[in-house]
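Researcher: Here's my situation. A collaborator sent me these components and asked whether they could plausibly form a single complex. I don't have experimental data yet, so a predicted model of the whole assembly would be a useful starting point for our discussion.
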Amino acid sequence: MAEGVDFEDIVARYYAPLYQFAFSLTRAEPDACDLTQQTFCIWAAKGHQLRDASKVKTWLFTTLHREFLGARRKQNRFPHVDLENAEAELPAVSPATVNHLDAAQVFAALGQLDEIYQAPVALFYLQDFSYNEIAETLVIPLGTVKSRLTRGLARLHNALTEIQPQQPKP
Amino acid sequence: MNRDEAKIILQLYRPNTADAEDPQIAEALALAKNDPELARWLEEHCARQNTLREKFRKINAPAGLKEQIISEQAAFSKTKARREKYVAVAAVTAIVVSLAFLSQFWMPSGSGDDSTFSIYQGRMAGVALRGYSMDLTTNDPAQIRAYLAQQHAPSDYVLPAPLQKTAMIGCAVEGWQNAKVSMICFHTGKPLPLGQQADLWLFVVDRDSVKNVPALNSPQFAKVNQLITAAWSLGGRLYFLGTSGDESAIKKFL
């Protein structure tokens, strides 16, 4: 394990953001829990190979994403689609519309996106990762991150406009 | 950079983050300061980004997840440590047993070493029981003797009369220390399991190549592994005969 890094400290620091990322990918609590737990199991087994303690966060998110993709491939549900040089698609959703949505609806909208967009968009909103960190975490080039984010955010916003906002309870 | 290009770049801008340090975004932000329409668009964009970020972060990990991860890892580590301990103990045991076994070959045969003959017996019984391949398959005793002579293995053996009348089926040359052992295979006539060709085996080796051999002026019977065996010495050769059954089963070949 990276020098001076304690397993319980790592869990305490990262389990919540990792769970959020896992949930954004799976949109199911049990799957997100399993994915988070599996990530820490791998950390316990292989974390010692990481020499740079400052890379722990990226290592964990990369591992979680890789595990998610691995599970998807086993289910044969992972569409192999790649998209570079995304053209601009300006979002149409208004801040007021977003404000009336609850978190579950936002995640439902995220789930409507092609899978290649989901992880970058989730990391973009959840963790304030820099674009470079997103590229490092997802193991894709920086340009690809930006193009996927551009198109992914536009599609997310479009999906949000199609969701009926929850009516306030009387 | 014009307004539309700036909008495209600013789509990826998150307020209150390090995104503003990106040169392209910094340029677009600077443009917004002097462009009222772009500034209004940026204000709306920032509001939307902040709201969405807030929604994304509303998902909380279930209560107890952290404790579950830590406790399961602790349990796994304990099991792993126990398993490693067992493996270590098993490895040490295996090494000790191996060394004990090998030391019988490597240790100088001093006055206290009286096991060499028994090791030879065990080794040859093992060859018969655990599989071998015949170098020559024939029922011609002369061919067998000639083959063994050609291989510089003992070929001047003298067979007891009953054994001379037993059907030979072939032979092989085995090794013992630096000596060659003639292995002659017989079939007593009993039904054999599928794939088995012989059920009686004679091993002949130079007597001097085996340490601590008793007098053996007459056959000495012993159960070795699953075989009943007879060992005797004649003309500088050590004979070792084995078959399945009891002592009476082998005596009829002597």
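Model: Some features of this prediction you could bring to your collaborator: DSSP finds eight helices and seven strands in chain B. Chain B has a mean pLDDT of 85.
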